[in-house]
Design a protein that fits this description.
The protein is of the alpha/beta class. Helix content is about 35%, strand content about 20%. It is built from 13 helices and 12 strands. The chain has helices at about 25-40, 60-70, 100-115, 130-135, 150-155, 160-175, 215-230, 255-270, 345-350, 360-370, 375-385, 420-435, 475-490; strands at about 1-5, 15-20, 20, 45-50, 75-80, 90-95, 120-130, 140-145, 200-215, 235-240, 245-255, 275-285.
Length: about 500
C-alpha cells in the first residue's frame, strides 16, 4: 500500500493562527507521527510526504507530486479556524464523488476510527471542492483536526500526546480501510495494538578468580604457578574504565556456597588476592520479570565488575528476541544495541517525576531500531540532559533539543529543531556518529548540524562519551546508565 501524506501549509504559509499556535506546525507533527506509526506497525507500506519540515509547497505542487507517485491513498492533514465557538473534527472528500465511491468508503472507516480517540466534537463527514482532493487522481481525504480558534481544541493541540492519539486514529482507519497486515515478530502478536516486549530471566554464575593484572605476563606467571599446584586456570581479559585487565579464572559455580568453599581453599594456599565475581546470563521469556543488576564481588581487594556474555552485543535484528540488559561493566556497555523498553515504559518512567513531560518514547524506539542504537538508553540520556524534560539548564523546551546539541557552555543555548521528532532524530544521528564509522543510513535526512564535527567511531560505549559529549563529564556515561538501570527495574 502506498500512502501520500500532505501536512497542510508550511514555510511562508503558516495556515490558521490563534491561541499562540500555527496550523503548519500541528499538521506536520501529526503527519510525521502517522508516518512513524504506520511504517513501524504494518507490513508492505510505503509513505511519501509533501513536506517533512517547515517548507513552502504550493497546492499544485502537492497534487502533482502525489499524482506522479501514484499512491493508493492521499491524506491531507489540516486544522480548522472560525469564530471561537466553533469546535470539533470533520473530514472531506471531493464534492464531485458519489457516496459509493472508494473515497467515500474510506472516509466512513477513517472518520469512525479518528473520532474514537481525538477527544473532539464530531462535526460529521462532508464534501468540498478543495484543490488537493479534487486534483489528485487517487482516493483522497482531507481531515480538519479541531479548531485552532477554539480554546478547548487549542489546548489539546498544544499537547504532543494528543498529536500521537490523532495520528494513531488515522493509522487505525487506514489499516482497516486497506486491510493492512500488522507486523508480527517474537515481540508482537496480531491481536495486540502495541508491541509486546519479550523480557528475560537470569541465571547467576559465581566465578572464582585468583588475581587481576594490568600485565598479561603477570597473569601468565600466575597460571603457571597454579598449574604447579594442580589448579587449572585460564586468563580472561576485560575492559575497566578503558584499560585492559587480565584475570586468572579458576572455576565457575551455580551456587555461592560452592564458590565460597573454593575461594577459602585457595586462600589457605596463600593467595590473598583471590575473589568471586557474580555474573549473570540471560534467557528470554514472555513473562514480564524485573531484572536485578549484577551483584558486587564477595571480596573487594582486587575484584572488578565483569560483563555477562549478553550485556554488550552489536545491534540485533528487529525480529530477534530481546533480553533484559545487565550492565555489569559500564565501561563495556555499547551505544549500539537493541532497544529493550517499550515507548510506554519510557514515557511512564519520566512522567513519575514530571507529569508534563512530552511523550517521546515512540521516537526513541523507532529511530533506535533504525540506526541500531539503544534507543531507551538514549532516552535516559535525554532525561539526564533535560532534568526529566523540565529544562532547568540553558536549553529551553521550545528548542526541541533533548541532548544539548551545540550547547557548548556558558549561555550558549545550542541548536533548535523544528519539532519533537526532529530533535530525537538529531540526537540519534549524533550518537551514531560517535558509535561507528559506517555511513549514515539514508532513509531519513541528516538533520544533525554537528554530525561532521564528530570524531567518527570515537565513542562506541556510553562511558566513552565522557569528555566528548559532555566536558569534562568524567562520569557522564555512568550517570546515563544509572538512570537506565532505574528505568529497567521500575517494574512497569
Amino acid at each position: 500500500m502506498k500512502l501520500y501524506l500532505d501536512p497542510g501549509h508550511g514555510g511562508e504559509d503558516p495556515g490558521a493562527q490563534d491561541n499562540g499556535l500555527n496550523e503548519k506546525d500541528i499538521t506536520l507533527a501529526i503527519a510525521l507521527k502517522i508516518r512513524t506509526i504506520i511504517l513501524k506497525d504494518y507490513e508492505n507500506v510505503q509513505v511519501k510526504m509533501s513536506r517533512t519540515s517547515d517548507t513552502t509547497k504550493g497546492l499544485a505542487e502537492r497534487s502533482s507530486a502525489a499524482n506522479d507517485w501514484d499512491p493508493d491513498f492521499f491524506l491531507a492533514i489540516h486544522i480548522n479556524s472560525a469564530d471561537n465557538s466553533a469546535q470539533g473534527y470533520e473530514d472531506f472528500i471531493y464534492d464531485g464523488l458519489s457516496d459509493s465511491s472508494k473515497a467515500a468508503k474510506y472516509q466512513d472507516i477513517i472518520h469512525s476510527e479518528v473520532i474514537k480517540v481525538n477527544q473532539l466534537k464530531d462535526r460529521g463527514q462532508k464534501k468540498a471542492n478543495f484543490h488537493v482532493i479534487r486534483e489528485t487522481k487517487m482516493p483522497s481525504l482531507l481531515t480538519e483536526n479541531g479548531f485552532i480558534s477554539n480554546k478547548h481544541d487549542a489546548e489539546l493541540m498544544k499537547d504532543s500526546s494528543w498529536h500521537l492519539k490523532v495520528a494513531q486514529g488515522h493509522v487505525n482507519g487506514i489499516a482497516k480501510a486497506f486491510n493492512l497486515k500488522r507486523k508480527v515478530t517474537k515481540e508482537t502478536t496480531k491481536t495486540t495494538t502495541t508491541p509486546k516486549i519479550t523480557q528475560a530471566t537470569t541465571k547467576t554464575v559465581y566465578t572464582v578468580y585468583v588475581g587481576s593484572y594490568k600485565s598479561k605476563e603477570n597473569a601468565k606467571d600466575r597460571v603457571a604457578e597454579l598449574k604447579k599446584k594442580s589448579i587449572k586456570s585460564a586468563i580472561v581479559s576485560t575492559k575497566i574504565s578503558g584499560a585492559t585487565w587480565y584475570r586468572v579464572k579458576v572455576a565457575s559455580y551455580t551456587t555461592n556456597a560452592k564458590a565460597e568453599k573454593r575461594l577459602k581453599a585457595i586462600e589457605k594456599l596463600g593467595y590473598d588476592d583471590a575473589f568471586i565475581i557474580t555474573e549473570k546470563t540471560s534467557t528470554t521469556t514472555t513473562k514480564s520479570v524485573t531484572q536485578k543488576p549484577a551483584a558486587n564481588t564477595t571480596k573487594a581487594a582486587t575484584a572488578k565488575p565483569s560483563t555477562s556474555t549478553n550485556s554488550n552485543t552489536s545491534p540485533t535484528p528487529s525480529n530477534s528476541p530481546k533480553e533484559a540488559p545487565i550492565i555489569a561493566d559500564p565501561g563495556l556497555f555499547t551505544v549500539l544495541g537493541p532497544t529493550f523498553l517499550s515507548p510506554e515504559q519510557m514515557d511512564q518512567f519520566v512522567k513519575k517525576v514530571n507529569p508534563n513531560a512530552p511523550e517521546l518514547g515512540q521516537f526513541y524506539q523507532t529511530y533506535g531500531n533504525y540506526y541500531g542504537i539503544r534507543g531507551d538508553v538514549a532516552f535516559a540520556q535525554a532525561i539526564h540532559e533535560t532534568d526529566y524534560f523540565r529544562f532547568t539548564g540553558v536549553v529551553n523546551p521550545g528548542q526541541n533539543n533533548y541532548a544539548g546539541i551545540g550547547a557548548t557552555g556558558g549561555d550558549t543555548r545550542g541548536a533548535s529543531f523544528k519539532n519533537e521528532e526532529e530533535g530525537v532524530l538529531t540526537q540519534l544521528q549524533h550518537l551514531y556518529a560517535y558509535a561507528t564509522t559506517k555511513p549514515l543510513p539514508n532513509q531519513y535526512p541528516l538533520v544533525d548540524p554537528r554530525f561532521q564535527l564528530v570524531d567518527r567511531g570515537s565513542a562506541p560505549t556510553w562511558t566513552a562519551l565522557n569528555g566528548k559529549w559532555a566536558v569534562p563529564g568524567t562520569t557522564y556515561g555512568q550517570s546515563i546508565l544509572n538512570l537506565y538501570e532505574q528505568m529497567i527495574h521500575a517494574g512497569y
